[in-house]
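Input record, target 12 of the design panel.
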């Protein structure tokens, strides 16, 4: 801007920017003048706004805005240079993707990838589940075609997904007390569920409590839905164990009806799950304070090899009676359907089920209209066929057992090398990830040895195999 003395009045700013404001002023909001969209980076409308506060780049832009201010809008409709987009900056990758990018750039043939949360077999290759391959073959043979499905998804899929999660003998299922909506994997379920909880309970505190640490996308999802994101104590980095005392204290100290996001099993990033006894204490504390409970379950069956055991906190919570919960369910990890983006959102004990389903369908419609069909057909086919379900349970146990074996092998190898540190927590943790206890500086030093894990010490055990475990242990030691 070339006119530092030029000032926009609050009224003009509201007109120009469209009236959107928050407590700190206007931010990144679209403005429309004669059909042309412009952008304001930031403007504080509490008082007069110096013209340079707007993202105007040159004197010609200044003149154009001056003409608009004085009622002359000629030429604006066809002018595409007034507010160029070159002020936009790149968004840094989160630690997961930053680690993946660093790994990809390393030309070493011996490099070890402990960053990606995708299951690999003992040869470091993708492993399509045999039961899933059979289901796909059956679908191809049936020639079902591809068609658009309703906003709330494939009915056959949402039914088997709910039965799988809550149990076929569940009182919630028998009493028709569950609303299930297909989503774009677990992330889509989290996003839709967070908006649903915000809008369906406007009287409740707009506060979301997330474990410290948690999956990198959790805080971003709830932040985008305008929750105040807070963290509850979860993992004690001094002991590499669950901080149950701190967890329970934070539940008690949170405002009543706050939202708590729980990892049902295979906690990401720590791999540190509460025991069943600890879960009962946690859920009893949450329900006594009438907190809203949102459960993220991405590893049912994959974490322990037993889908019923991995769903324990959900099964225990439903036994508490009428305390509602929302569950984000993913089939990426436990079915190996990473690219199909298949998930489901479940809402229990709704007081107005018809209204709530309509609300959920409306949220889905605004986001992506219709969920994907093919992956939903695969999951439906597997879970509705008793023989394929049995084979799937064998497949998921194969994955869980290999992960557990690599945990123990890594710890045993470190001990044989004479490491003085206690690594037993890695063997005791569960699921895809382990929180190694390595510091950021130690993680970065490992990159000199071509070993890549996240700066916080999270490692994907899936990247460990019988061919590289000794090399990895030597690098860590």
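The sequence produced for target 12 reads:
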């Amino acid at each position: 801007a070339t006119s530092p003395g030029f000032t926009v009045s609050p009224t003009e700013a509201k007109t120009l920017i469209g009236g959107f404001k928050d407590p700190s002023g206007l931010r990144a909001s679209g403005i429309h003048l004669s059909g042309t969209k412009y952008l304001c980076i930031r403007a504080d409308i509490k008082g007069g706004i110096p013209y340079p506060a707007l993202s105007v780049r040159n004197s010609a832009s200044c003149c154009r805005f001056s003409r608009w201010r004085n009622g002359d809008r000629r030429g604006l409709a066809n002018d595409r240079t007034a507010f160029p987009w070159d002020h936009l900056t790149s968004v840094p990758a989160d630690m997961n993707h930053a680690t993946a990018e660093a790994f990809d750039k390393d030309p070493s043939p011996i490099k070890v990838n402990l960053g990606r949360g995708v299951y690999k077999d003992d040869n470091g290759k993708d492993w399509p589940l045999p039961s899933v391959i059979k289901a796909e073959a059956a679908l191809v043979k049936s020639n079902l075609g591809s068609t658009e499905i309703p906003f709330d998804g494939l009915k056959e899929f949402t039914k088997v997904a709910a039965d799988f999660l809550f149990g076929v003998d569940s009182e919630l299922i028998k009493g028709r007390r569950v609303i299930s909506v297909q989503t774009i994997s677990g992330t889509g379920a989290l996003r839709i569920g967070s908006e649903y909880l915000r809008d369906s309970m406007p009287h409740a505190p707009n506060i979301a409590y997330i474990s410290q640490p948690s999956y990198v996308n959790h805080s971003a999802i709830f932040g985008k839905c305008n929750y105040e994101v807070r963290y509850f104590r979860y993992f004690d980095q001094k002991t590499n164990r669950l901080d149950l005392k701190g967890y329970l204290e934070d539940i008690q100290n949170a405002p009543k009806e706050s939202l708590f996001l729980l990892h049902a099993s295979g906690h990401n990033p720590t791999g540190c799950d509460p025991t069943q006894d600890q879960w009962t204490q946690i859920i009893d504390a949450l329900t006594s304070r009438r907190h809203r409970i949102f459960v993220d379950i991405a590893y049912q069956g994959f974490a322990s090899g037993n889908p019923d055991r991995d769903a324990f906190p959900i099964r225990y919570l439903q036994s508490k009676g009428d305390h509602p919960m929302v569950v984000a369910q993913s089939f990426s990890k436990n079915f190996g359907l990473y690219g199909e983006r298949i998930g489901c959102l479940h809402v229990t004990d709704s007081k107005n089920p018809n209204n709530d389903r309509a609300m959920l369908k409306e949220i889905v419609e605004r986001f992506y209209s219709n969920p994907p069909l093919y992956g939903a057909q695969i999951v439906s086919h597997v879970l509705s066929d008793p023989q394929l379900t049995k084979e799937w349970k064998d497949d998921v146990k194969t994955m869980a057992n290999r992960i557990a074996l690599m945990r123990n092998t890594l710890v045993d190898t470190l001990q044989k090398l004479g490491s003085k540190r206690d690594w037993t927590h890695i063997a005791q943790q569960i699921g895809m990830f382990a929180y190694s206890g390595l510091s950021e500086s130690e993680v970065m030093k490992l990159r000199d040895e071509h070993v890549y894990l996240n700066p916080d010490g999270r490692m994907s055990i899936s990247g460990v195999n019988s061919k590289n475990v000794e090399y990895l242990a030597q690098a860590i030691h």
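Residues 188 and 224 are 13 Å apart (CA to CA).
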